[in-house]
Design brief:
Blueprint: H1 9-19, H2 27-47, H3 56-91, H4 96-106, H5 111-123, H6 126-129, H7 132-142, H8 151-163, E1 167-168, E2 173-174, H9 179-196, H10 198-207, H11 220-227
Helix pairs in contact: 3-4, 4-9, 5-9
Length: 229
């Protein structure tokens, strides 16, 4: 037995027939007839009558696939509605903090993972602003805390920050219009937004319950624990 649409198997069929003295007139004629038959085969199959009775197992399997597909479709529709709502709210978001808050509210991402990524992004900014002391001073300034710029011990860091237009050494002020300062502010706002979400805060608080660190992003202990400054 061979599959009716198996091109190569027809030559094996010919070899088998020849063993029983069913010899073809020529190999060329056999190939011509074989190719013509295979060319017409799709139409021949389409013209065959379909079965009127379906095997119960086949029916059950098809029905199971249908139900699975319907359930998956419902999930896709629910996800699509969720994304439409997400996009609509993003269009009305005023700033990065609003966007971060929406992400925390609407995303299925683990809030602890989001928090870890957000705090890591703030902590890594020391490489861009000039050093950890500069980063700590900028975070303090972001929250309106008084923080003295220590040029005696951290002069090199602040000189680098000044060259990057991040601080004014004469006025001792952070220049928040600088590109890196704006980048830092976005990351800090993202951390604030995550912690402002009650569900996210509860999950994060549970995760770090044993750390004895207040989950207050304007607190020095928080900066030391999560930003490494």
């Amino acid at each position: 037995m061979i599959r009716v649409d198996d091109d190569v198997a027809y030559n094996q069929l010919r070899d088998t027939l020849e063993k029983y003295d069913f010899a073809s007139k020529s190999g060329t004629k056999w190939d011509t007839k074989r190719k013509l038959f295979l060319q017409n085969l799709p139409d021949l199959i389409a013209s065959l009558p379909t079965p009127t009775v379906i095997d119960s197992e086949v029916h059950a399997a098809a029905l199971a696939k249908l139900r699975e597909a319907q359930a998956e479709l419902l999930n896709y529709e629910a996800e699509a509605d969720k994304l439409k709502n997400y996009i609509s709210q993003l269009e009305h978001a005023k700033d990065a903090a609003d966007v971060a808050a929406l992400k925390a509210e609407l995303s299925d991402t683990d809030p602890v993972l989001e928090f870890n990524n957000a705090t890591a992004a703030v902590g890594k900014m020391f490489l861009k602003v000039g050093g950890k002391e500069v980063l700590k001073a900028m975070i303090a300034d972001h929250y309106g805390h008084q923080y003295a710029i220590d040029m005696m011990n951290y002069g090199d860091e602040y000189q680098e920050a000044a060259l990057k237009q991040l601080v004014n050494l004469d006025t001792r002020q952070v220049l928040w219009n600088a590109a890196r300062a704006k980048e830092l502010a976005r990351h800090i706002d993202a951390v604030d937004a995550i912690l402002d979400n009650p569900d996210a805060y509860a999950a994060i608080s549970k995760e770090f319950a044993n750390n004895d660190v207040p989950l207050e992003p304007d607190n020095l202990e928080f900066w030391q624990a999560f930003y490494g400054v």
